[in-house]
Amino acid sequence: MLAGEATLRRNLVERVPQLGHIDEVSRTPMPGLYEIRVGTDIFYSDADGNFLLEGTLIDTRTKKNLTEARQDKLLAVDFSTLPVKDAFTVVRGNGQRKVAIFEDPNCGYCKRMERDIQRVDNVTIHVFLYPILGPDSAVKSRQIWCAADKGRIWVDWMARDKALPSAGGCDTSVLERNIALGRRHRISGTPTLILSDGSRVPGAVTAAQFEKLLAQGK
């Protein structure tokens, strides 16, 4: 524990109870400024807890966004722990490069990305259906999940605008698990990519960006 940390914690908890449980207190490169971590939220305080800041800390010498870099680490996902049994997998070429993507079948950005990344080879893509855009997203996700060839049906729908088959009877509790998984990892939008090194990329990417990210994850 840092010197004076107990006092800092006590003052913040007493004066700002809505802050909640403080998970970690650590020094920042800025003298006299401390990082206050609450879950994956980052705040800053002086040594006595007399002042609390919420915002971005930037190192002007290196132009590095220290807050963003810290949150990237906090939001990183251990790729090996992802429950890929709750995803369906699309393999192209040798499949050596791996990525997981959380997607909603009604997401226009997802469709645009899927059309573009069809050109990317030698990749294994674990697609986690993440129906967060409304009831129809859940309906379409059930249709895709219950299909015999999920990967083909997915690509036909997302990249080629082919109609989905009628939903067959199957266990679709996976969708609830995926939503719980996404919320646990604070995935708030689609598409969200999880690279094999654990880093995440929110939003649609082009084929060229996808290639670069796969190399980064590797």
Instruction: Indicate the proportion of strand residues.
Output: 15-25%
Number of domains: 2
**Parts with pLDDT < 50 across at least 5 consecutive residues:** none
CATH superfamily of the largest domain: Glutaredoxin
Number of helices: 7
Characterize the biggest β-sheet: 5 strands, mixed
Any descriptors?
218 residues; alpha+beta; Nuclear Transport Factor 2, Chain: A; Glutaredoxin; 35% helix
Q: Can you characterise this structure?
A:
- The protein has 218 residues and is of the alpha+beta class.
- The chain folds into 2 domains: 5-75, Disulphide bond isomerase, DsbC/G, N-terminal (Nuclear Transport Factor 2, Chain: A), CATH 3.10.450.70; 79-217, 3-Layer(aba) Sandwich (Glutaredoxin), CATH 3.40.30.
- 35% of the residues lie in helices and 21% in strands.
- The protein is built from 7 helices and 11 strands.
- A 5-stranded mixed β-sheet has the order 7-9-8-10-11. It has a 4-stranded antiparallel β-sheet with strand order 1-2-3-4, sandwiched between helices. The chain has a two-stranded antiparallel sheet with strand order 5-6.
- β1 and β2 form a beta hairpin.
- α3 crosses α5.
- It is elongated and about 60 Å long.
- The two termini are 36 Å apart.
In short:
The chain is an alpha+beta fold.
Compile the SSE list and pairings.
Layout: H1 5-15, E1 24-27, E2 34-38, E3 41-45, E4 52-53, E5 58-59, E6 64-65, H2 66-75, E7 88-92, E8 97-103, H3 108-117, E9 123-129, H4 135-145, H5 150-160, H6 173-184, E10 192-195, E11 200-202, H7 207-217
Parallel strand pairs: 8-9
Antiparallel strand pairs: 1-2, 2-3, 3-4, 5-6, 7-9, 8-10, 10-11
Helix pairs in contact: 3-5
